[in-house]
Design a protein that fits this description.
The structure is a homohexamer of 284-residue chains.
Chain A lengths: L11 E7 L2 E6 L10 H16 L5 E6 L4 E3 L4 H4 L13 H24 L4 E5 L2 E3 L1 H7 L3 E5 L3 E3 L13 H9 L4 H9 L3 E2 H6 L5 E3 L3 H16 L3 H12 L6 H15 L4 H11 L9
Parallel strand pairs in A: 2-3, 3-5, 4-6, 5-7, 6-8, 7-10
Antiparallel strand pairs in A: 1-2, 8-9
Chain lengths: 284, 284, 284, 284, 284, 284
Amino acid sequence: MALSRFPKFKFFNVTVPAQYVVQVEINRPEKLNAFFAPMWFELKGIFDVLSHDPEVRCILLSGAGDRAFTAGLDVEQAAKADNPFSSNFPDPSRKATVLRRHIFELQEVISAIARCEKPVIALLHGYTYGLGIDLSSACDLRFCTSDTKFCVKEVDIGLAADVGTLSRLPKVVGGVTSWVKDVCLSARPFSAEEALKNNFVSQVVDGGKAEVIQEGVKYAKYLSSKSPVAVQGTKNILDAAWGRTVEDNLNYTAVWNAAMVQSTDVQRAMLSGLQKRTPTFEKL
Amino acid sequence: MALSRFPKFKFFNVTVPAQYVVQVEINRPEKLNAFFAPMWFELKGIFDVLSHDPEVRCILLSGAGDRAFTAGLDVEQAAKADNPFSSNFPDPSRKATVLRRHIFELQEVISAIARCEKPVIALLHGYTYGLGIDLSSACDLRFCTSDTKFCVKEVDIGLAADVGTLSRLPKVVGGVTSWVKDVCLSARPFSAEEALKNNFVSQVVDGGKAEVIQEGVKYAKYLSSKSPVAVQGTKNILDAAWGRTVEDNLNYTAVWNAAMVQSTDVQRAMLSGLQKRTPTFEKL
Amino acid sequence: MALSRFPKFKFFNVTVPAQYVVQVEINRPEKLNAFFAPMWFELKGIFDVLSHDPEVRCILLSGAGDRAFTAGLDVEQAAKADNPFSSNFPDPSRKATVLRRHIFELQEVISAIARCEKPVIALLHGYTYGLGIDLSSACDLRFCTSDTKFCVKEVDIGLAADVGTLSRLPKVVGGVTSWVKDVCLSARPFSAEEALKNNFVSQVVDGGKAEVIQEGVKYAKYLSSKSPVAVQGTKNILDAAWGRTVEDNLNYTAVWNAAMVQSTDVQRAMLSGLQKRTPTFEKL
Amino acid sequence: MALSRFPKFKFFNVTVPAQYVVQVEINRPEKLNAFFAPMWFELKGIFDVLSHDPEVRCILLSGAGDRAFTAGLDVEQAAKADNPFSSNFPDPSRKATVLRRHIFELQEVISAIARCEKPVIALLHGYTYGLGIDLSSACDLRFCTSDTKFCVKEVDIGLAADVGTLSRLPKVVGGVTSWVKDVCLSARPFSAEEALKNNFVSQVVDGGKAEVIQEGVKYAKYLSSKSPVAVQGTKNILDAAWGRTVEDNLNYTAVWNAAMVQSTDVQRAMLSGLQKRTPTFEKL
Amino acid sequence: MALSRFPKFKFFNVTVPAQYVVQVEINRPEKLNAFFAPMWFELKGIFDVLSHDPEVRCILLSGAGDRAFTAGLDVEQAAKADNPFSSNFPDPSRKATVLRRHIFELQEVISAIARCEKPVIALLHGYTYGLGIDLSSACDLRFCTSDTKFCVKEVDIGLAADVGTLSRLPKVVGGVTSWVKDVCLSARPFSAEEALKNNFVSQVVDGGKAEVIQEGVKYAKYLSSKSPVAVQGTKNILDAAWGRTVEDNLNYTAVWNAAMVQSTDVQRAMLSGLQKRTPTFEKL
Amino acid sequence: MALSRFPKFKFFNVTVPAQYVVQVEINRPEKLNAFFAPMWFELKGIFDVLSHDPEVRCILLSGAGDRAFTAGLDVEQAAKADNPFSSNFPDPSRKATVLRRHIFELQEVISAIARCEKPVIALLHGYTYGLGIDLSSACDLRFCTSDTKFCVKEVDIGLAADVGTLSRLPKVVGGVTSWVKDVCLSARPFSAEEALKNNFVSQVVDGGKAEVIQEGVKYAKYLSSKSPVAVQGTKNILDAAWGRTVEDNLNYTAVWNAAMVQSTDVQRAMLSGLQKRTPTFEKL
């Protein structure tokens, strides 16, 4: 699809590779797609819009260039001049207040992905470091090339990861396993194969970045052919399973579905099943 | 064991393949063991009784015939005449109320398995679709033949799974992993091998249905030779671990065991251990 | 390091194999390192001190002798004379009260390891039975030799494990999986390979006990070279992920880091990174 | 209303004092409405039916005779012959199992009132002891005569209240206050005035039992004139507020109302408001 | 203070009646300060800014004109032309999706007040209906005139309150009391006196609107003279108490204060106390 | 009772005013019973012992001298020489770590009272400031003289209360009410009458300190005449109600009572009731 109906963004390419599928590409390849302040806010805005856009049923998140999904925070930029944290504070508690607000702000960007109503698939290649783990942990699925290099890098810059990795990695790979502790405490890089074995990615695609994008588009098209009421409800209810009891989750599911099974999708899906046709569904 | 002390059920064969072991077989093979209304209530009744029956220490849940554990909901029956959901409702909120009650009712059937005091082992073969996942996720262990075909089918009929899969699958395989999202969002079938790799089943038994039943009976006999106080307490406490904190679970465990270690089982088990004899335990 | 600055303990050898690294060795090899009353209290005292000792950044927990990490409770001792539980109680509720207090007391010992601010690595070999699972589940990482023999043994002595295994094993391997239910309900032994496959241990070290210790020391030295603010914060936040919602955990993380990123570690780590030097960090 | 469309129950009078209003009267006045086994099951059955009956919008729970709402458990009956708890058990853990099942069974009766979709108002007079507190704490509102005598009696029969009072009284009066601890620990009787002051009852009606019934019917008729979608949703959401976070409750509320504001009630209520007419609503 | 440093808002007057004190006045008196779409977004923007403004230590929320704090939603506007909910939807589940998004959007406005870092005091007079309860329940304190008329109005327009009242009123008055159920289920108006008796407002000020504003300003000045680190921390920690365990809240408190007691406020406050002087504190 | 069987403590008088009743008196009247380091540890030790002592059924906590229960922290001592917090730290994060440990340590002292198995009644008179609120909020009941002066003092020394008040006051008075926010944010003193009206104390005793002690002893004797199994179980279960759901609490209650109703107390209590005799109970 040559033209996108989306506006131009400064640091992200937003395109429509197939009907109902949107690809968001982090676009700062000359810096390994490392993040600095203005990128964050663009990213949140994009996902807030896609979440409610009825033309969108599945989102792909990828990185421009051959070398990285994202190398993480742009440390040079972070160290620069107008950094509010280098300024003088009357005391550590006041500095803590400003830092806490700043962390919340960044967490909200990542949470915009996690809260997006449509499934989001991270398509990973090359360096996927630090923030790259935060971002992809907030996605629903992760595909990667065999040469992807992962690293929960934060310990190496002297801090505990604070914008989502430590909260979402246990949810995404299942518990606070030996492996989660290992990669988070040591900040050691790990390979695609190790990511697959530990259930962080759901597939390692043969070939390079082009192939993983292709596979992502194919999967996204497949998901987009399904009932959007069913797909988006499934995402929402699964995410509510973590940190809550089975009993509370069952009750929540019943309340959710009491409205959502009143869709035309159920009839269409059943009928198409019996007639061996591909159903089409109204927008959502 | 030729004769069962259990009554005849219409849609389930309830037999006693070994002392303390009960096998519940879904018995509608001509319809791939698909479920329709009267089956649900029979099933709940059976598990409510087995839960408290002191002659029962382990339960096997399997499907009759060669082709399926269960193909899930009987969609044809569900689409039929006297379906309360086809009737007219004054407005969507009133329809939602009736639907919510109906979902709760079905959830209660599945929860009767999950709450059963005795360990329940699902023995799977052939089609294990939709409701087959709800049912087996509510069991404690899952064994399957190598030709079992799994599918979280609900998205394909236009709805989010609502009688237990989305609440229990994350508990049972560990978190809301890439794999859980993949199979729940896409409704794609998956194999026994994949189920094993992702910790949904604990073993794939070589051979066919007869072999998995045999293996199930063998395992159930083994569990039934253990202290029932120990086995049933272990099940109860493990299930409480999900969605609650370690601190709360430790406290609960201590309160539970304060009563339960006052059994005669502890002495018998220890003594038998020292004397290299097989202990016997009182009923529970 | 020949001399330890730690006092002599009766049942534990506490040594310093490398700077910032402390090894706690269970030292009752003639009894397969089985535990009895006086050992518990020593162990709690040791971990309470190490948790706050600024000279300590990583702790190794291992067992003396060639045959066992620990075979678990010393059943013979437990069965002996002055056992308070053999005394007469006016009624089962009063006995339950004394038992409950006793279970809490033992849980507190295991929890002292889990709550220790520094990462703790269990180095396992030989018999790792019963209490050995409780102890190692409370550690952050588990390495083992290929001949380690694991067993959640409690069902075999007639009780549900009550000092931590049932609460922490699901956290550590991810959920209440088929495998967790299998090994906890059946009390069947399992191998190092199985432990690795199910994410209970993060590596099986080639060779024997000497090699796993060597690997542990190497890993501990590596962790100790990292920012202790970052490492200890990561441990704390990850442990809070279990049984709580992502939203609560994100908020907790922000509050934690608002203080903790005000360390000198961040500057030192970043600068060293740019200068390709190894940073050193203040004690913590 | 002279005739009831409800069947005759042995221990309860179920009548219809006004359209949409049902009164359930505990009817064993010769024993101060004290409960014994067969009454429990009748009570559960009644509330399960009323919960879903579209002709019912508000339920009153009261006690027959002049002397008591209920004096609680019928201790004489409980002490009698065929009591399963006087039988011999092999050990205290097996007795505990049977007791636990029995407590769950009784809790389920009380919970049937708490889970009833329609608002339930307890109309109290005379002795409201023990079980009387369990029952009325499970209701939504409590009105009483000025001579009502309350008592959380269980401590006086040697046990902690276990069918609901200790779980629901804090919810109903707000926290584990000095007053809650006082009346629960001491088992001292308290007056209507004290119940009002501590927010247990919402009004003390002047006069005797007839007046409190009259007031209850009046209030129930008033509630029944309101939108049943609005009233029943309000009850459900308020009950979910206890023991959960504001954030979780807000999300649950939005999911609930997404279906429930699609009623015809909203238009009818608004229009009637503008036209100063009394709206009528479809059944629910 | 004659001039405000705040911009002009269309529906709110934002003024600075005293140092560190900001008053936000709902300004649509000709419509009893009833809310319609554009007002919501202005309100959220205002509180988001005030939350972080270091010149602000306490916020007052009041209503312009003599007759109302706010009469709630502007039902006429809500019923008007371009209402997205009157448009056609393919099915009730798609309408539910749009409604759910809309409810979340409105909840976020109210939550902006609840999450505001600075204490917010609602100053109430006249009609305080529907949304007026949602707004004031999200504040920290509520003062009112003796002629304030309160009403949880939503049931009267056919729906369960869904932007905060049902989640926050139980938190604010303590539990799901008889009184909370009464006023929420019946939508009956209640008086200032009743609001005081049930702990919804902390004082009823003698006189009219002018007096309650005066009292509010006086209290706000008093709070603003205290350490802002202490005041804002107290607000944050108290709000975290609801729906979480004491143990979790204690841990959170310790982590919070580890940073926040490193303020200069502690020294200044202590020294001023000893010297009987009024301390001044750095901005926050 | 002239002689106590308890050892002499330096800062506390521990006496036995009646059978089964122990009075712990804070004994530093010359400093208004203000706390400094050595007192904390003594206090924890005392409550840990009393919690398990079978001769103890009820505990009274009071302050020596005429002027104060306790004026709170001894600020002069806290400001003194060897204060670890005045020493130099490499950075605020390391100082935060030491502070966090210190706060946990003090919290554990207060929690020792809250966790004490026996009911604890705070008997308050004179200054009950700061720590006095933390201590008494951890008790089960609070009685006071009419001249007691209360104050949540911490805001006035520049910090949020961090050893328990903010976590337990909402539990104890019911929610995060207007009143809780008012007294915690403003640090304004409040009277006995206000404490009673807001459900913080359960009675204001006429007369002075002697009378409140007398009333406390009388109440404690009364509680001690009841079944200790029933009283201690009631305390435990009620405390678990806060921050957890009704469903979880009901389950916990059933598990607790399955052991605890197997006491001899039930028979004795019932029989004594029928025979109008005062029962005696075994120690616990």
